[in-house]
Amino acid sequence: MLPQATTYRIIYPQGIRISVQDFAAYIRKEDVRLVTVNGTSYWTYRYEGALNDIENAVVLLCWPEQAFGEPKALRAFLCTDISLDT
Description:
Layout lengths: L3 E2 L4 E2 L6 E2 H5 L8 E5 L2 E10 L7 E8 L10 E5 L7
Antiparallel strand pairs: 1-7, 2-3, 4-5, 5-6, 6-7
């Protein structure tokens, strides 16, 4: 199981410093992928790149299917093994 990352964690998409929570507000439905885990569906977005204290990692942003875009429903998972598939 991947550790859950705080949504306040800093990432650097396109070299811009922003928190995961603030970045999530810019993600559109066409940017995400619907996946199903144990019969439950989630919208997912994969960020790969620099974090404040890690040179290169993956942060997987996830929302339950019926809660896409809702800040309180957002969960973020951090993985330092970037070779793993989303």
